[in-house]
Automatic annotation (TrEMBL):
Domain of life, source organism: Bacteria
InterPro entries, alphabetized: Benzoxazolinone_Detox_Enz, MoCF_Sase_C, Pyrv_Knase-like_insert_dom_sf
Organism (species): Erythrobacter rubeus
PROSITE patterns, per database record: MOSC
Protein name in the entry: MOSC domain-containing protein
Residue span, MOSC domain: 27-168
PANTHER family: PROTEIN YIIM
Transmembrane segments: none
Length: 216
């Protein structure tokens, strides 16, 4: 599996909702960008309690999903931006059904590994709410599984727009990002599935813990 990354996007924390700040507005970068243990340098996350860190170092939200959101929200200029959903990597032709927890990818000379699906929060609705009635976006993400995912960085390196994101190794092939999201975020897991997820070695520790807690 090889896909060209058409843009690398990063952002800084800016006023977002009253006293709140957010770095969800990611803009394309020019030239070579460093990829460190916690992601691109520089790239900020406003609320480090729930965003950023080694298990959420690099975010990819498939560009192909933008067409779905145009059908839902209208032809918004915001949807022309590759980082509209806070994504660091703009990639076409790939979705949550195509990749798995633990898949390893070479990007530039960095090595990335899928760690978890992205769990949507209210900031997505607020970001789009200035231009349209975005109420219900989070619910639609959960229902449709259009969530995107995070990578951890196994080997730091450099990359730039136009480089290829190439899968070198398939991780837990029974656990696509789509299935993992459905089980742990949409809440559709059987007890057997939760037991598997609780011991899934390449799944982010917080989600393994979540699976354990759901088992009771």
């Amino acid at each position: 599996m090889k896909h060209t990354v058409t843009a690398i996007c990063t952002g800084t924390a800016r006023p977002f909702n009253g006293a709140e700040t957010s770095a969800i507005a990611k803009r394309p970068r020019e030239g070579v960008v460093q990829i460190l243990e916690e992601g691109f340098a520089p790239d900020e996350q406003a609320d480090r309690r729930v965003h950023g860190g080694p298990e959420m170092a690099v975010h990819l939200y498939p560009l192909d999903h933008h067409a779905y959101w145009r059908e839902q929200l209208g032809d918004l200029e915001l949807l022309d931006q590759p980082g509209a959903f806070g994504s660091n990597l703009a990639v076409e032709g790939i979705s949550e059904h195509d990749v798995h927890i633990g898949d390893r990818f070479r990007f530039g000379d960095a090595l990335l590994e899928i760690s978890q699906p992205r769990q949507p929060c209210w900031k997505i609705e607020h970001r789009f709410g200035a231009e349209t009635d975005s109420k219900g976006m989070v619910a639609r993400i959960i229902k449709t599984g259009r969530c995107g995912w995070y990578f951890r960085v196994l080997e730091i390196g450099n990359a730039q727009a136009g480089d290829v994101l190439e899968r070198l190794e398939t991780g837990h092939e029974k656990w696509s990002v789509a299935r993992t999201f459905s089980a742990l975020v949409a809440g559709k897991a059987s007890r057997e599935e939760l037991e598997e997820l609780a011991s899934l070695g390449r799944l982010a520790p917080k989600l393994r813990t979540k699976a354990t807690e759901k088992l009771g």
